[in-house]
Amino acid sequence: MASDPNTERLRSLIAKITYLTTKGEIQWERQADSAHRYARWNNNLLILGPDVSTTDHTTARYLFITPFDSPDCIEISSDRADLGAGVLALVGAVESATIQKPQSDPFRISPELIDRLTQ
After folding, report:
1. Model confidence at 17, in pLDDT bands (50, 70, 90)?
2. What tens digit of pLDDT does each residue of 44-66 get?
3. Cβ density class 74-103: b for 16+ within 10 Å, e for less
């Protein structure tokens, strides 16, 4: 793989997200009927997936980051030799932070949402 000039910046970003997760400053959710964990941070949507056992070392994990106000995104796979360890460390931190949390449904259709869309 060619050397990526942004590798150190991405490594630092993953480490920061992991640190903030362990400190409880980033609140991850377990979405009902989904293979992902998600969080909102600095006007970005963070998605970590898939939701497989931490003992499963054959399934690649990924961190997907996209701003709420832009179609831009970053996806970092645990298969990357240069950043994979950081993604796996984040997986462990997120798993620890969400293990006792109930699943949520952020896309639940509520009467209030329907009212807003139909007015």
Report:
1. very high
2. 999 998 877 777 788 899 999 99
3. eebebebeebbebbbbbbebbbebbeeeee
